[in-house]
Amino acid sequence: MSLSYHAKDQSFRLHHSRDEQPNPQHFFLHYEQGFELYMFISGAGSFSIEGNLYELEPYSILMINPNELHALNIDLNLPYERIVLSFNESIMPPVMLSGVDLFRSFKYRKLGQNNQIPTDQVRSSGLLDLMNKLMELLRQPSAENEFVAKCVMVQMLHTINTLAESKIELTDSSTKTTKIHDMIEYINANLDQPLGLDELSHRFYVTKYHLCRIFREATGFSINQYITYKRVHKADELMRQGCPMTKACFLAGFNSYSNFYRSYRKMTGKSPRDGKQG
């Protein structure tokens, strides 16, 4: 049974659905405006997050923060079922948290790394039971159930933090993987600077052809596509903080407003003015 629920105060939304014939147009490159927990239930495929590829297994969970660009690759020949829980830091008033940062496991990771909680941990930690409890509450909507649902989410976040902080991080030390991660870190730290292929190939001691090939192999995106998406995301964040559109455009690294406008509209389906208001 599918479920789509939006909190009255816009602090979270949950979507549970099953596609008998998955539509590839639904699985485009994108980022979220909040934090996301994605539980894969059935089907086959993989999730690319900032250059790391995660193979999907039933009831595994991916945690994604607003700065992580990601894309889904699903086998279109199999039914596809998932639960997506998106929320922001307003799910609980700060006075109730006593300074605790519930979202620290989302925020304080390197981009694209340690995103996945494997199925065995989802089951043994109680996360699967908590997700089922959350669904049960939201299928019977009421003000009280919505509040209790938020308490369940707090428990889920606490469990995720406990898992993350007890985990020994395993890193892929291959030269190619390290180089891609270094590139991604450099690009994200320098979006307001020129980031052409010549500059990047010189900085990372690799030919432009090889650079383009290994970047696409690792991330699923071209370098230019990745940079443009990241710049649009940065401009979007700046505008939401009250920055004027033209100023946000240049602070995010675009060389003209017209280029920014086209890129923003292509990526989000709306104009920068609409995005600023939304």
From TrEMBL:
GO molecular function: DNA-binding transcription factor activity; sequence-specific DNA binding
One Pfam family of this chain: HTH_18
Entry-linked SMART domains: HTH_ARAC (SM00342)
Stored InterPro entries: AraC-bd, Homeodomain-like_sf, HTH-like, HTH_AraC, RmlC-like_jellyroll
Ranges of residues in domain HTH araC/xylS-type: 181-278
Key words of the record: DNA-binding, Transcription, Transcription regulation
DNA-binding as UniProt keyword: yes
Keyword Transcription: yes
PANTHER family given in the database record: ARAC-FAMILY TRANSCRIPTIONAL REGULATOR
Protein name: AraC-like DNA-binding protein
